Amino acid sequence: MASAEDISQMFHSEYLKLQNLINTANSKTDMNIHEIIETYYQIMNVSSMATMLKQQTKSNELLDRIRETEKLISEQFDSIIHPKIMANLTASIQEMTRALQSGNSTEKSKEKIESDAKLFEELRQKMSTKEFVDQYEIGISHD
Amino acid sequence: MIEDLAKNLVELKNEFAKSYDGKSQIQEVIPKSTSSLFPIAEPHLESLHQFATKNPIYYNYFEKKIGSVDCVVYEGDINRYWLNSIQHGSSKAPFSPTWIMSGYVVTLFAKHLGFSEVIDIGSGDGRIAFCAKILDMESFSIEIDDMLVDLQKLLNKTIDFHPHCSDAATFDYNSLNLKHPIFFIGGLAQMGGNALAEDVLQKIHSISHLKANAGWVFAGTFSQKYAPDPKNEAGWGSLIEEHNLKSIQTISLPTAWTFHETESTPYIFSQSI
């Protein structure tokens, strides 16, 4: 069984990973899908750990770290990064949809159809990423 | 004989999938001529090829020998129909077609079971209704997406499979004067098909002479991507039980959405107990 110190270190290590992801997100104007998913997973991972550890630990040091983490998520991620990701995804989906619709009226070559198919695939990925991000939005609006 | 035809088609698809190196979003094959593996009347085969060559979802075709069968490969793209359907939000399941040959085999089986009318619900480009019509059954095609119904009207010029642009949940089935119909439900149970089937079953079961008389065909899946149904039947078991239906037979056939998978699509034929 892990000691209280092990658990505290594990939490700190996950917190540092999250902090790195948040710093990266803050420094970028547009994150790719992989970065978005990785960041949300780490947010969920650390949030779940924090919820569980808050109920179990008596260590003031760990409780302070948990509070610091929750502050980071609330003030940096929920208030700044998450709305920015939502807005970027929405704008990007609208722009891609418009571009793909406008190209529908013309007769296309086999090569053009097959290269456009890649853009459609990218659009589908962005839409499912947005659904995933929307679920997070529903979660924080119910908190 | 029909079961053999289905089995041969699945084997043809598996052989084709192994060798296909094109980049099209969807692809399918139709045998070029009648053979011992595909003993299909030549005029029927000709109609199936016409359906593909006139259909704008296919942008390329070429001949290819697959195993011992001379075939025509059709390459297509349905992205713009997908984009249109998600814009309207009215469609319960995105358009993804069964193979034209599979449409032929399922309607052949429906005819063999003695049904006289095929009603293709969520019919996409209308291929199942088209196939029923070339088999001399009466057929009706119901699709909510106007862009797909426009496509059906393009394909409906010589063989009238009665395209209707309508919500299948509110459609007036009495207007069709059905006697012994079989309903094909578009979409997997987990992809909106269940909700669609519920709506149509309720409407048909409220018409007294059709409740005992109607047949139902559901496209199922054994893919682990989807939650299984506790009563099985490839995702349809609970609905079949709740509506007092019994499964008559399941026939597995190739579809666009299973092209890259080892399992084909099981079509579950059922009727009232």
TrEMBL record, chain A:
What's the superkingdom here? Archaea
Protein name according to UniProt: Uncharacterized protein
Q: What is the lineage of its organism?
A: Archaea, Nitrososphaerota, Nitrososphaeria, Nitrosopumilales, Nitrosopumilaceae
Organism name: Candidatus Nitrosopumilus salarius BD31
UniProtKB/TrEMBL annotation, chain B:
Q: Which SUPFAM superfamilies match?
A: S-adenosyl-L-methionine-dependent methyltransferases
Lineage: superkingdom: Archaea
Q: Which InterPro entries match?
A: SAM-dependent_MTases_sf
Q: What is this protein called?
A: DOT1 domain-containing protein
Say which species the protein is native to: Candidatus Nitrosopumilus salarius BD31
